[in-house]
Amino acid sequence: MCEPYSKEKTIEMRKKHIGPSCKVFFSKDPIKIVCAKGQYMFDERGERYLDCINNVAHVGHSHPEVTKAAVRQMELLNTNSRFLHDNLVQYAESLTATFPEKLSVCYFVNSGSEANDLALRLARQYSGHYDVITLDHAYHGHVTSLIDISPYKFQQLGKEAKKEYVHVAPSPDTYRGKYREDHPDPGAAYADDVNEIIKEAHKNNRKIAAFIAESMQSCGGQIIPPPGYFQKVAEYVHKAGGVFIADEVQVGFGRVGKHFWSFQLQGEDFVPDIVTMGKPIGNGHPLSCVVTTREIAEAFGATGLEYFNTFGGNPVSCAIGLAVLDVIKKEDLQGNAINVGNYLVELLQEQKEKHQMIGDIRGVGLFVGVDLVKDRLLRTPATAEAQHIIYKLKEKRILLSADGPHRNVLKFKPPMCFTKEDAKMVVDAIDELLTAIEGATGTKTSMINEQATNKRKDTINAHENTNSVHGSACRALENGFHPETHPISSKRLRT
């Protein structure tokens, strides 16, 4: 494939002209991608990579229907939303039709970060309060207001980085969190922690404007909130005069299969006050949106301060958004998410029977996480091993990432056209790599007695907090496993 620069020249120019904090995947040997189609990406040599992580290309890279819609509208007109245009209202109508009735008002913007920033403004204006409750390990965007409420980011800067108006609630993680799968009602227990945060804030004369959470935590380790959690949190937050913001930037638009929006997994009796979206909404085009209630929108407008976004809701963006909605329906991508996602989980469960390094498999539709452990009883995170696996998969032309607080969770969130053949290809490769690691470290591939887990549960937290990432790496080095050949960056990348 003809490119103006060699890969080496591209790297050289990037170092010269692009800010050093702008990281690339696989920094030791980054990939130069020159084109992509469906669930595949191609480098400058024509090598094909299976894309298991690109939730931006929601309906598939370079989808012809989306491309045609963009070109048709761009040839005709593109302008800002201060002029009347049917694309804007048509798209708003089509988008809000996917939501519960009370979520009926749209604000179109250009990125997930812009959407979440605007959601905070809406919440603060409506409530008259300022403080925000966020989840531990959460990430909501790169602008200043969102770094402040993203522990995933600000915790890297030290304890002093947390602002006094930010309150961090425990991630509702039933595998690694304080309330686990053996708790009779973890959803209520985690929600009670939020209520205690509210009470403590009130003691300090602080008022809650909003609780914000991804409907399923992605950077936090593919965490699916337990049943009833959002309902109880919303009850407590509303009582405190705040609103509930559901961040669907990574997990919306049918990725869970059975529902169009991930918050709907909590049941019909839960409806957030504000929903934000980005990434998949435009299949790679910079488009995002905030959807809220008429009551909140009118409170925002009552300030007299006009809200204007130059490119938000322009005719081309809305044409693309309409095309994405159409493709999801015509190609039954929600159905595909169910069928392929279930198959992927089945394959991974088979591997869990075989490999004790697989501690937990969690997911819905095409949003799946594999929590790798050094000890299944202690649930000690296998960070070095996870990093080793994603680099080795890259050598096999498979793109996967690892995230979570310990960077030990393999993350699946591929384009929605992902197939069963793709799923089997990836799982077979993971099986091969786990077998090699276990062979090198002398780990047996046998099923752990799960009853022993319950007997030893009191020791889990202490060991999990004190075990060093380098512990297993050092032991593995003695047996020929060398994770340090793929160094673990201290900086995390969001995908």
Provide an overview of this structure:
The chain has 495 residues and is an alpha/beta fold. It contains 16 helices and 16 strands. The protein has helices spanning 7-17, 64-76, 86-96, 112-127, 144-147, 151-154, 186-203, 229-239, 294-301, 315-330, 333-354, 383-395, 420-441, 450-455, 457-466, 469-477, and strands at 33-37, 40-43, 48-51, 105-109, 131-135, 166-169, 208-214, 243-247, 274-277, 288-292, 358-364, 367-375, 380-381, 398-399, 401-403, 409-412. It has a 7-stranded mixed β-sheet, sandwiched between helices. A hairpin with a 2-residue loop joins strand 1 (33-37) and strand 2 (40-43). It is globular, with a radius of gyration of 23 Å. The two termini are 26 Å apart. The model is unreliable at 445-495 (pLDDT under 50).
How many DSSP H or I helices? 16
Mean pLDDT: 89
Number of β-strand runs? 16
Radius of gyration: 23 Å
Shape category: globular
Distance between the termini: 26 Å
Please state the structural category: alpha/beta
Largest sheet: 7 strands, mixed
Uncertain stretches of 5 or more adjacent residues: 445-495
**Strand order in the largest sheet:** 4-10-9-8-7-5-6
What fraction, in percent, of the residue positions are helical?
25-40%
Q: How much beta, percentage-wise?
A: 15-25%
Keywords: Lyase, Mitochondrion, Pyridoxal phosphate
EC number: 4.2.3.2
Subcellular location: Mitochondrion
Family: Belongs to the class-III pyridoxal-phosphate-dependent aminotransferase family.
